[in-house]
Write a structure and sequence with these properties.
Oligomer: heterodimer
Radius of gyration of chain A: 18 Å
Number of helices of chain B: 7
CATH class of chain B: Alpha Beta
Helix content of chain B: 25-40%
Structural class of chain B: alpha/beta
Strand content of chain B: 15-25%
Distance between the termini of chain B: 50 Å
Number of strands of chain B: 10
Strand order of the largest sheet of chain A: 1-2-3-4-5-6-7-8
Largest sheet of chain A: 8 strands, antiparallel, barrel
Helix content of chain A: 10-25%
Order of helices and strands of chain B: HHEHEHEHEEHEHEEEE
Shape of chain B: globular
Structural class of chain A: alpha+beta
Largest interface: A-B, 54 and 47 residues
Shape of chain A: globular
Order of helices and strands of chain A: HEEEHEEEEHE
Strand content of chain A: 35-45%
CATH architecture of chain B: 4-Layer Sandwich
């Protein structure tokens, strides 16, 4: 539980910084209200992940806090992941047929809840025996389709995204092992943002 | 900006169509591909002469503590494939660094290049994350034995901290004392390590000195050592990690003596 509380404090501080830097973009809405609810399938943060997020820097950055779950009957291990995900939105395409598409890229900090990994070494280990294996860093790029905007609706816009992602650990292994690393380190994630 | 968009769009499209692992749910997942399961059993079936009880000589090679060094592992396997008088390979544990499925899959792919059977000990790193579960599916039991050309080989899991269990000394005693064959013990963690309790250290010492054990081989400590810190009659040998770019060839003689050779790769 201490781990989760520490994480929430850490994420809250990062969200406060984001809100401070991009506060003007929140308009008339309360700064504490999230701008979006994100739902994600796969992408190394669980079978399904859901969370809230803020849109800052004039829509250029989405910062989300997600909780992902992988049930045991799918992954042969139950995994609960808390992810702080940052998505950078590039400018829309000018070409009319695809002008609703954004290229996106970003990174996430993923923390496993502690059942399968540890943030802090148990006391019976000598100091420095292992570094934490509960935190992974995700990297991704992809495409986002911006649905039609409606100011009258409670959900003003729905965005759909597809991402190709990996983990920094896998990238390190691939670089270290050069031609000998044959595993496909990339995988897909699909999801949607419900904008309020 | 338009050109950057186009470049990224092309890259994204390329990756979207080229991903083999369409969806990865978690690095901690433990769902092993059917094609990679039960490797110990398969290798046991492939071990030629497994049923013979003659006293002919045989040789084997050990490697240890490869962790994420798949490049070195491949080179070790390539070297092993050039030696034509060895019957099998033993990996003395820590075939992964974080116990992740990705690491286990890479290890399996690298040892697939070996032209002879490969047997494994589970190491402390292999238990991390959900590695213990993956190992069990991919290789089989943590503790097991093989009889080959009149020698009984005992693979013993002595990991305590990462496995959350104590070494099964009853199983170890039973396997050592249940037959008169000469024996070789393979276990990742040497018995003088902190993970052993004093009781188990003494038990281990007594058993290998009384139950006709030719040699006790270990990983975990990355440097070569043939020291005998427990003052036993039996020799201990730690061939060292794959980082040293060596493999260790063991030859068992007809009179149950042995010689070892450190071969660089």
């Amino acid at each position: 539980m201490k781990r989760i509380i520490s994480l929430i404090i850490m994420v809250s501080i990062s969200l406060a910084v984001i809100a401070f830097n991009g506060g003007d973009n929140f308009g008339h809405r309360s700064e504490l209200l999230p701008d979006e609810v994100k739902l994600q399938f796969a992408g190394n943060i669980g079978f399904l992940a859901a969370g809230i997020g803020y849109e800052t820097f004039g829509g250029k950055l989405n910062s989300d806090l997600l909780i992902g779950y992988l049930p045991e009957y799918i992954g042969k291990a139950e995994v609960l992941t808390i992810a702080q995900k940052n998505t950078f939105n590039f400018r829309n395409f000018k070409y009319k047929p695809i002008r609703r598409l954004n290229v996106i890229a970003g990174f996430s900090i993923n923390v496993e809840s502690g059942k399968n990994a540890f943030l802090r070494l148990p006391d019976y280990y000598p100091g420095g025996y292992y570094s934490t294996n509960a935190i992974t860093f995700g990297l991704f790029t992809g495409l986002k389709y911006n649905g039609k905007y409606s100011s009258n609706s409670k959900i003003k816009q729905i965005e759909y995204f597809a991402e190709v992602g990996t983990l920094a650990t896998y990238v390190y292994y691939a670089i270290y092992n050069e031609d000998y690393f044959e595993e496909d380190i990339y995988s897909l994630a699909l999801g949607m943002n419900l904008k309020f | 900006m338009k050109s950057i968009n186009t470049i990224i769009f092309v890259f994204v499209s390329f990756f979207l169509v080229s991903c083999n692992n369409l969806f990865d749910f978690s690095p901690y997942a433990a769902d092993v591909d059917d094609a990679l399961k039960n490797q110990t059993k398969i290798n046991l079936n492939n071990l030629s002469g497994v049923q013979t009880k003659s006293s002919e000589l045989f040789s084997f090679v050990t490697i240890a503590d490869s962790h994420y060094k798949f490049k070195e592992l491949r080179k070790a396997v390539e070297k092993i494939n050039t030696i034509d008088d060895i019957d099998f390979v033993v990996h003395l544990g820590d075939m992964t660094d974080k116990g992740l499925m990705m690491e286990y899959e890479m290890f399996s792919k690298e040892i697939y290049y070996s032209s002879i059977p490969v047997f494994t000990c589970i190491g402390n790193h292999d238990y991390l994350s959900n590695g213990g579960s993956i190992y069990k599916q991919m290789f089989g039991a943590y503790n097991y034995t093989i009889e080959h050309k009149g020698i009984k080989m005992v693979f013993f899991d002595a990991t305590v901290w990462e496995s959350g269990k104590t070494p099964d000394m009853s199983w170890f005693e039973k396997e050592l004392s249940s037959c008169d064959l000469p024996k070789i013990v393979f276990s990742h963690i040497p018995p003088w390590d902190d993970q052993y309790s004093d009781t188990n250290k003494n038990k281990y010492k007594d058993l290998i000195d009384t139950e006709n054990v030719i040699i006790s081989m270990h990983g975990h400590h990355h440097e070569f050592s043939d020291a005998n810190p427990m003052n036993t009659e039996t020799t201990f040998l730690i061939p060292g990690s794959i980082d040293n770019r060596n493999i260790c060839k063991m030859t068992i003689n007809a009179d149950n003596t042995f010689i070892y050779e450190i071969i660089p790769f």
